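Take a look at the protein record below and flag anything odd:
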Amino acid sequence: MCISFRQRISRFTAAAAFAGGLALPGAASAAHNVVSYSAPVQAGTVVISARQRSLFLVNGDGTAIRYPVAVPKAGKEWSGYAHIDGKYVNPDWVPPAVVKHDHPELPNFIHGGSPHNPMGVRALTLDRNQVAIHGTTNKMRASVGTAASYGCIRMLNEDVVDLYERVGVGTPVVMTP
């Protein structure tokens, strides 16, 4: 319940931009926390553990890349299966009604690339109602590692850029309590 997008990017465009050096500075050197991981899921699956406040990208060799994340707050939790159905660079954002109700001071629209856009620099939409894995603003970085969102999975911008380059549309996502 946290997104409305107007900027979609194809895998070809993303690859071309990355190859052309248009990715965020330092994205390629983002620190990765490779951990032992033995859950019975296929390589390339994204597993989000709400309890651990972590997102795991399963490598398939008994390891996974672990990223810290903010997960849904009490009353907004979800669990189950989804797939990535869209990839966005600097997405625009329209606050959903529930967010606008709780925060009437928010503008009705925030352009992609704005330092006030809670989607950050990348978003991976899921085939669930208004839910995405996305970046964050500098002001909200401290929320990563907590239960703070309206349903989305919030990552540090440098981490979501790294994940964006590693996954594609159709990637399976599993959310666990």
